[in-house]
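Consortium newsletter contribution from the modelling node. Members have asked for a concrete example of what our holo predictions look like. Here is one, prepared for the N-(5'-phosphopyridoxyl)-D-alanine complex that several groups have been discussing at recent meetings.
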Amino acid sequence: MRTVYLNGAYVAEGDATVSIFDRGLLFADAVYEVFSVLDGRIIDHAAHMARLERSLAEMKIAHEVAGAGWDDVLATLIARNALVEGTVYLQVSRGAADRDFLFPAPGTPPTVFAFTQARKLADNPMAERGMRIITRPDRRWGRRDIKTVQLLYASMMKMEAKAAGVDDVWLAEGDVITEGTSQNACIITREGHLVTRDNGQALLPGVTRLSVLDIARESGMTVEERSFTIVEAQGAAEAFVTSASLFVMPVVEIDGLAVGDGLPGVETMALRKAYIERARGAH
Ligand code: PDD
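And here is the predicted structure:
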């Protein structure tokens, strides 16, 4: 049984309960982060923390963590659960108050919890075969730059992918890709340029995306932060997604059409390797 964190205490997962009046439950009034852990250490720690602070500020959720702060919570959970490889999920909601659309009075304590999930990240068999994806209309709300727990549409789209026998969905406004259901979408053009949508309110500013763009630039690749269409992606040399849990994951098929030669791209796999090496080497 895991030890989880809830509002200042470390408890057995079965003992961690929150109020039915929690605004995270009633209004999806909560933000979260997913940190990946490799060799017992968090990857891109500072960037995830900075995004968490930004999400909280955008939502105007007042937040003070008891004790030594977020870093201590994460380190304690990793140690107590002997997590070597996997993820840590951290959520902060506006807290519990009688149901009302208006925010509760200042001083209402936020609900903060975190838990670990052990899973293989570096050694993911999907990297060998690549992901097959389909595209669907992006019908999420307009502030996708805030990492809120409003994940129902993403969840529905993942179920649609499953029913279609593919691995995931890329979301599009018209024919322009915004991002994956829970990853950022990237392509490599036939000229060898890495293209990924520029940050803004339409998509989540991915932490992994940022690191991978750094690595690509360092290796001399041209990076273009701009929108691209479904057709451009299908005609690209390579395609991939980035996220905390998938790192860099090749995409080999979009809406039934093979990308490149239909195998994980060479440049994509080099970026994946470099990302994992950098994560391991950083410690
Ligand atoms: N998802 N876009 C969306 C909509 C996401 O939910 C995520 C992350 C990303 C990638 O961001 P990052 O590289 O910072 O993980 C992009 C996490 C992994 C999740 O919800 O499980």
